[in-house]
Structures are given as C-alpha cells and as structure tokens.
C-alpha cells in the first residue's frame, strides 16, 4: 500500500475489520470514529496491536454522522495530525425491524435517512473538501510513472442498494440514496483525481446481523441459502475488498458498485 493515512467511520462490524486491516497492511496513520467513543477507542487499541508499520499512529474520536459539523471536525483532526487523508471509508448504518409501508413508522423512516443517507452525504462532502486541497500521489509502476490521485473514498452501501426487499422500505430507500450519492460524487470528482466507489455487502456476520438473528433465529440459514456460495460472509472479506478499492491495485476503479454478497443479488431461486 502506497498511501498512508486513512479515516474509517464505525468502530464495530465492517468498520472495525477495515481499521484492523489497514493496520495489518502497513498504514502509517488511522482515525477511527464512531458515536460510540469507547468502541472507537477499543478498535484503535486493537489496530495498534496489529499494526505492522513501526511508525503507525491511531486516534479514536466520537462522531455523529447526522451532524455535518461533527463529521467535518473529524476530518480537520485527521488533516491536523497527518496533513492529508488518502483513504476514507464510511460504514455507518442502521436497520430496524420490518413492516410493510402501510404499517411502518414515519419517525423510524426519518431516523434511518438521517443516519444512512445524510451520513453518506456528509462523509462524502467532508472527504472531498479535504482531498481537493491535496496534491495527487505519483508512484513508480512497472515501467512508467503514474498517478493514483488525490484520495480514495468508499461508501459501504448494501445489497439493499440494488434489491428492494419487502418490509424494509426505510432501509432500502436509504441505501438506494447512498448509492446515488456515491455515483453522483464519482461523476463530479473523477476529473479532480478523487476515486469514489460504493461497496455493497450482502449478509455478513456483524452485530447488525446478530440483532436480526436474535429476533428471528431462522434468518441466518435463510440468508445463507440465498447466496450461491451457501454461507454468510465474514467482515474480513468485506474489509479486504475495501482495501483493494483504496489501494494502488484498484487505482483505475472509479464510480463502481462492488457487490460482495456471495452471489445473493445474482441468485435465481430454484435453479
């Protein structure tokens, strides 16, 4: 990995796994931010323990992704400490239990949009504002010099960004919007050499999935059968995909929707 400094929002599940992966793969600096500050501190501690770069530095901060000023402060902190942000990953999201549209809660809908949709918009806006001020990074390839741009942004969306599953209109709407924000930003800032991609996980072993399973134990097997691989995914599999997107290996991947779901979205039941 060439770029050195990363910001990841969320201290559990996919966000935690991504922070630890950056540490293992040699990142120089990392900011882990979450509304759960003790959780962010614990993830930062683990990242420090697993870091392979002897100069690795990590910070844990509290962030409320519903508040743009809160998000801006995290980026300002990162720039103050590291002078630039090379990667930025937002994996914050919520999902609640299910109801058809006629029976759903409008308050619940609003809260879901505030976190899942505004959180992606605010993260993308704050990251772009920082990266526009950075010089592009130039590396030596196999036989030529090439640029890998000013920075790379990954918004963790969902299979629900591309599949409208019944009984979760709040979540579906927020994730479709998150994907639209990501693709719009990619169209707007590609010419500025800022790479922006969406990563859409399917069923992954996370605290969010565990809450679903606690309410409905049969859901785990149902989700596993829904994938063509026949299993639920691991957070490290998502984290590895994020690292690819932000690394030099993914330097020509831009505006993409990368689906990491074991084939769930591609599955045709009964075949």
TrEMBL record:
<dbReference type="InterPro" id="IPR002347">
    <property type="entry name" value="SDR_fam"/>
</dbReference>
<comment type="similarity">
    <text>Belongs to the short-chain dehydrogenases/reductases (SDR) family.</text>
</comment>
<dbReference type="GO" id="GO:0016616">
    <property type="term" value="F:oxidoreductase activity, acting on the CH-OH group of donors, NAD or NADP as acceptor"/>
</dbReference>
<protein>
    <submittedName>
        <fullName>Uncharacterized protein</fullName>
    </submittedName>
</protein>
<dbReference type="InterPro" id="IPR020904">
    <property type="entry name" value="Sc_DH/Rdtase_CS"/>
</dbReference>
<dbReference type="InterPro" id="IPR036291">
    <property type="entry name" value="NAD(P)-bd_dom_sf"/>
</dbReference>
<dbReference type="Pfam" id="PF13561">
    <property type="entry name" value="adh_short_C2"/>
</dbReference>
<keyword id="KW-0560">Oxidoreductase</keyword>
<keyword id="KW-0521">NADP</keyword>
């Amino acid at each position: 990995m060439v770029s050195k400094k990363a910001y990841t929002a969320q201290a559990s599940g996919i966000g935690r796994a991504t922070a630890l992966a950056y540490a293992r793969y040699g990142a120089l600096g990392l900011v882990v931010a979450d509304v759960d500050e003790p959780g962010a501190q614990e993830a930062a501690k683990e990242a420090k323990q697993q870091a392979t770069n002897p100069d690795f530095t990590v910070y844990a901060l509290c962030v409320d992704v519903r508040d743009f000023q809160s998000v801006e402060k995290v980026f300002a902190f990162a720039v103050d400490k590291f002078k630039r942000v090379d990667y930025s990953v937002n994996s914050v999201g919520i999902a609640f239990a299910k109801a058809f549209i006629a029976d759903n809660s409008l308050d619940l809908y609003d809260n879901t949009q505030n976190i899942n949709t505004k959180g992606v918009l605010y993260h993308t806006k704050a990251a772009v504002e920082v990266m526009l001020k950075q010089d592009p990074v130039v590396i030596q390839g196999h036989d030529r010099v090439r640029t890998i741009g000013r920075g790379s942004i990954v918004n963790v969306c969902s299979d629900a960004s591309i599949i409208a599953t019944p009984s979760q209109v709040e979540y579906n709407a927020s994730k479709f919007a998150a994907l639209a924000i990501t693709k719009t930003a990619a169209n707007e800032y590609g010419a500025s050499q800022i790479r922006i991609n969406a990563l859409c996980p399917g069923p992954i072993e996370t605290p969010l999935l565990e809450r679903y399973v606690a309410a409905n134990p049969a859901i785990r097997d149902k989700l596993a059968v829904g994938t063509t691989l026949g299993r639920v995914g691991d957070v490290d599999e998502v984290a590895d995909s994020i690292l690819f997107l932000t690394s030099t290996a993914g330097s020509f991947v831009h505006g993409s929707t990368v689906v990491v779901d074991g084939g769930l979205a591609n599955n045709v039941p009964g075949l």
